[in-house]
Write a structure and sequence with these properties.
Elements (H helix, E strand, L loop, with lengths): L2 E7 L14 H7 L3 H10 L9 E2 L13 E2 L14 H17 L6 E7 L3 H14 L2 E7 L5 H12 L6 E5 L7 H6 L11 H9 L9 H12 L8 E5 L3 H13 L3 E5 L6 H5 L5 E2 L20 E4 L28 H22 L21 H7 L5 H7 L7 E4 L3 E4 L2 H5 L7 E7 L9 H15 L4 E5 L4 H5 L7 E2 L2 E4 L1 H5 L5 H25 L2 H4 L11 H8 L3 E6 L3 E3 L9 E3 L10 E3 L1 E3 L4 H8 L3 H9 L2 E5 L4 E3 H4 L2 H8 L6 E5 L4 E4 L14 H11 L4 E5 L4 H16 L5 E6 L1 H7 L20 H21 L4 E6 L6 H13 L4 E5 L1 H4 L5 H11 L15 H13 L3 E4 L1 H12 L30 E10 L4 E6 L18 E2 L6 E2 L3
Parallel strand pairs: 4-5, 4-6, 7-8, 7-10, 9-10, 13-26, 13-27, 14-25, 14-26, 18-21, 27-28, 28-29, 30-31
Antiparallel strand pairs: 1-5, 2-3, 11-12, 12-24, 15-16, 16-24, 17-22, 19-20, 22-23, 24-25, 31-32, 33-34
């Protein structure tokens, strides 16, 4: 749209002094030309009758409502007609707003066709007095509908604009224009939605049009009781007439309508009526007084050239007109300003924390329990915008992706910055086995119990599944049974594309590295370019240092990534084409979720922090021994662009309609294994002070939980209230000495039949150790036993008994997989109780300790090792990182998840071993040092029979089969 002028103006307003009191003859010398007509009407009143009473609007500035009795013995005061009371009350409201928020300044935007400053001047005079701001947008006089809509939509999204006034020809105020106008900014009350709300009697969402506000308030200020009286609305049509009629009736009067051409006009007027005249029509020759008239109220909406016959007006009548062809000026502008301030008040109220109004979705569990995907498809999720509204999100804070998921904008943190956080719960587990422990399922079951059954606000925060496990061995991570996130297909496949954004950003860095090496090796310093004021003054050495990074190809640490388990990409050779001029080198691929960019996404606390972290990522070392960063490559700004949407958490829901944030997805064995800091922070604000945020750490407590405390909590500044430690009888049997199992083979009898000895062995080794690890950090522990149908009551009772002996605050069997939230109510009560207990949270180590000592603290206190053993490469790397100033970073151990030790086959709680550290690397952007223990791989491989064998798509229904 082409706007010819956009101005902000706030002129001063001076209210003229009131006319001194005088008799009617004095009035005739001072008033505008309409006054003689009024006086003639008054003098024509029959002797002994009640004299007509008039309220007159001349469209001029005034200090209060003017009124006078046409009795020559009565003194009166006449001011120019502006409602001082409205202005003063609006100003008081404005001052009260600014006491609560000094930075707020309500703003009115006027969109008009053509350049006419008279309207702007009139509105800004009042705006200056009240403390508002007025913006004028002048379009071409013959502007198109598209141009108007474009400007309306732009102002709709401007948080600094609280009211829109469309000063356009009637032909330009089309249905499309009115539909585009946001009702909350429609201070003229002209949109279809606003009109409908007013007609229905809902004054909480829309605004009364300024002209109608003036009519109703002037009637009220006339001190005439109109209860039960009849008001004739004359000469109007359209929504203004209908709205006025409805509001008159809601004020206790009877409203009828008529047109000037009505044959029954005279009889219709002859009701008990008051005549309302809000503008300045040409009433010369219009005798307003009639001795035979018995009317009490007439509202003239449009008069044009029509006159009421003099003998139709009764003595004692009050005369006004709302004819839009005449200038009602300052009167309606005053009510417009009142609506703008009201709009701003609503806007601020909406941005306060809102109590939840969550509607849960009923579950009807079946026996036997169907497959996960069948359960997911049997439940219809709520529209995500409905869910967002129920938990207090504003429409502008939501970016909807289809019907069931949406991104949530980080502006929510600014809006609720003063809102106290809810309670923070971490779900971890014992050392995992191929049988599965169900941390995600417990997380979902717990929040379903808290919100849908105990009516306590709760949020689940989960990681986004990687395509690698989904098509490999593990499957998805949406939970399972009647405790899962829906739609589970969308949750497990692509979601909102965050992992794809990470892949693109990571590989852009890789491409920048190889391109830089190629060009530096094949071009002169002059061709590489410089950005200095006086390049001629630089020496050859300075030029070389300026234009060259001089990356050492053998010391590049940055890998490309792909989100697929592809073992043959673990080591590759690049640059073998003849066009690369011999610049080949060995490198490799990692899985996408192992990228440092994924770790940054999970630890950043905002867009600026993420951009800073991306810039300081170290990608390699120069031949001179200096680290080379993404900022040195000039790629950090482009990375931020690729990641600008991925930084927003994705909102989804559980089977019972409770909210879930899905964000980030680093693996716990090769990264820190937790969902994002931002998702947790947003959720903690949304649930309120008495609510719960339940977040999950990857793998066992020795990996995911330890990194949650020492890395994530340091980055976020948040402290958990409770740890929920998930265990299963089957896994405890394996840790107690049970036989190994492999996928696709029948379970040995030990895992099907009752075996209390194996259960006790697993409890007193692995479960005890994991409880002790949690208590190292001073946080209460609740053990959740994820119940399977093969578990016996004696086995469950034994786990509960030993867990409490080992220091757990409580131990609860959970049946959420088969029953949903109802099967997790006991756990919800236990968590609620534990959250009220004393919490002595502490970190495992001080960041100022040497890197070696921090590694040793984790190995000995968490894993149970006797000591650590550093390879020569690891020692050299530690010395290098100390020289670079990275010695104060926390530690992120890359270790197998299948054992507390570095030996996957060692179950239970191994002791008496030395932990080998074969290499040490730095994720400077993410902010941690990660030692590699044993033979850890950052690129998983596919098994003999991957999950993708079972996955298929029906081309007719587009339904997915075989996913889980």
């Amino acid at each position: 749209m082409k706007a010819t002028a956009i101005r902000n103006t706030c002129s001063s307003l001076r209210i003229p002094a009131a006319f001194p009191g005088s008799r009617v003859t004095g009035l005739l010398r001072r008033c505008p030309p309409v006054a003689p007509a009024i006086f003639r009407a008054a003098s024509a009143a029959p002797s002994g009758g009640t004299k007509p009473k008039f309220l007159v609007n001349f469209g001029k500035p005034s200090s209060k409502y003017a009124g006078f009795e046409c009795d020559r013995s009565v003194r009166y005061t006449l001011d120019f007609f502006i409602p001082r009371e409205v202005i003063e009350k609006t100003k008081e409201t404005m001052e009260a707003l600014q006491k609560r928020n000094a930075a707020i300044q309500p703003s009115l935007a006027i969109i008009q066709a053509g350049e006419d400053d008279s309207l702007l001047e009139m509105n800004t005079k009042l705006a200056r007095r009240i403390g508002l701001k007025v913006t004028q947008v002048c379009l071409e006089k013959e502007c198109s509908e598209d141009e108007i809509v474009k400007e309306v939509l732009k102002l709709n999204e401007d948080p600094g604009v609280h009211g829109l006034y469309l000063h356009l020809p009637p032909a330009s105020t089309t249905s499309r224009v009115l539909t585009a106008l946001k009702p909350e900014k429609d201070v003229e009350g002209i949109s279809d939605l606003s009109t409908g709300c007013l007609i229905r009697g809902d004054l909480s969402t829309g605004y009364v049009p300024p002209v109608i506000s003036a009519v109703l308030e002037l009637l009220d200020n006339n001190h005439v009781s109109l209860e039960g009286k009849t008001v004739l609305v004359l000469g109007g049509h359209g929504t203004l007439e209908v709205t006025l009629r409805c509001l008159i009736e809601r004020n206790g009067m009877v409203a009828i309508t008529s047109h000037w051409t009505s044959k029954n006009l005279k009889s219709e007027v002859c009701f008990s009526t008051v005549i309302l005249n809000l503008s300045f029509p040409h009433f010369e020759g219009f005798n307003l007084l009639s001795p035979v008239m018995e009317a009490d109220a007439i509202v003239i909406l449009e008069a044009g050239n029509m006159d009421l016959p003099p003998n139709w007006v009764k003595p004692g009548a009050v005369v006004f007109s709302c004819d839009p062809t005449h200038n009602t000026g300052y009167l309606t502008a005053a009510y417009r300003m009142k609506n703008v301030v009201h709009s701003c008040t609503r806007w601020l109220q909406e941005r306060q924390y809102q109590p939840w109004n969550l509607s849960s979705i009923n579950l009807q569990p079946q026996t036997p329990v169907p497959s996960d995907i069948e359960i997911s498809r049997a439940q219809t999720p709520k529209p995500v915008d409905q869910l967002a509204k129920e938990i207090g999100l504003l429409p502008e804070e939501l970016e909807v992706y289809g019907r069931s998921k949406a991104k949530v904008r980080l502006s929510l943190l600014d809006r609720l910055q003063n809102q106290p956080d809810g309670k923070y719960v971490l779900v971890a587990g014992i050392t995992p086995t191929p049988l599965g422990e169900g941390k995600s399922t417990v997380t979902i079951g717990l929040v379903q119990a808290l919100s849908a059954h105990l009516k306590l606000n709760s949020f689940a925060c989960l990681r986004q599944p990687s395509q690698g496990p989904t098509f490999g061995v593990k499957g998805g991570a949406a939970g399972g049974g009647y405790a899962q996130v829906i739609p589970m297909e969308e949750f497990n496949l692509h979601l909102t594309g965050d992992i794809h954004a990470i892949t693109a950003a990571n590989n852009l860095v890789a491409a920048a590295i190889d391109a830089r090496i190629l060009h530096e090796s094949t071009q002169s310093d002059k061709r590489l370019g410089m950005d200095k004021t006086d390049p001629a003054s630089l020496t050859p050495q300075e030029i070389n240092a300026f234009v060259r990074l001089d990356l050492d190809p053998s010391r590049i640490t940055w890998h490309r990534v792909v989100d697929t388990n592809d073992r043959f990409l673990r080591k590759i050779t690049v640059g073998q084409a003849s066009t690369e001029k011999g610049q080949s080198r060995e490198t490799g691929f990692d899985i996408a979720v192992a990228s440092e960019i994924m770790a940054i996404l999970a630890l950043a606390d905002g867009l600026e922090d993420m951009k800073t972290r991306l810039a300081r990522m170290v990608v390699g070392t120069s031949r001179g021994g200096q680290p080379v960063t993404a900022e040195d490559l000039g790629v950090s700004g482009a990375l931020a662009v690729l990641m600008k949407d991925a930084i927003k958490p994705t909102l989804m829901q559980t089977l019972e309609g409770t909210p879930v944030f899905v964000h980030a997805g680093p693996f716990a064995n090769i990264a820190h294994g937790n969902s994002s800091v931002l998702a947790d922070k947003l959720a903690l604000k949304l649930v309120g002070q008495d609510g719960f945020v339940v977040t999950e750490a990857g793998f066992g407590a020795d990996i995911g939980m330890e990194k949650f405390f020492n890395i994530k909590c340091r980055a976020s500044g948040l402290q958990p209230n409770v740890v929920v430690l998930v265990a299963t009888v089957r896994a405890l049997k394996m840790h107690g000495g049970g036989p190994n199992v492999s996928a696709g083979t029948p379970l040995p009898r030990e895992y099907i039949d009752e075996n209390l000895d194996l259960v006790a062995g697993g409890c007193r080794s692995n479960l005890r150790k994991q409880i002790q690890i949690a208590r190292l950090f001073g946080v209460p522990v609740v053990v959740a036993v994820n119940v399977f149908k093969t578990d016996t009551q004696a086995e469950l009772d034994l786990v509960c008994q030993i867990a409490k002996e080992c220091g757990a605050s409580d131990t609860v069997p959970c049946h959420h997989w088969a029953q949903g939230g109802r099967g997790c109510i006991e756990l919800a009560h236990a968590v609620n109780a534990a959250a009220t207990r004393s919490n002595n949270f502490q970190f495992l180590y001080n960041l100022q300790l040497p890197l070696v000592d921090k590694i040793r603290a984790i190995a000995q206190q968490v894993y149970g090792a006797d000591d650590i053993e550093l390879s020569p490469d690891a020692k050299a790397k530690i010395d290098y990182y100390n020289q670079q100033g990275h010695g104060s970073l926390p530690i992120c151990m890359a270790k197998t998840h299948l054992s507390l030790s570095h030996m996957p086959e060692k179950k239970g709680a191994p002791t008496g071993f030395i932990l080998p550290i074969r290499d040490v690397r730095a994720s400077v952007g993410a902010g941690f040092i990660y030692p590699l223990v044993g033979t850890m791989s950052t690129m998983p491989g596919l098994p003999t029979r991957p999950c993708f064998y079972d996955i298929d798509l029906d081309p007719v229904t587009e339904e997915i089969s075989g996913l889980f």
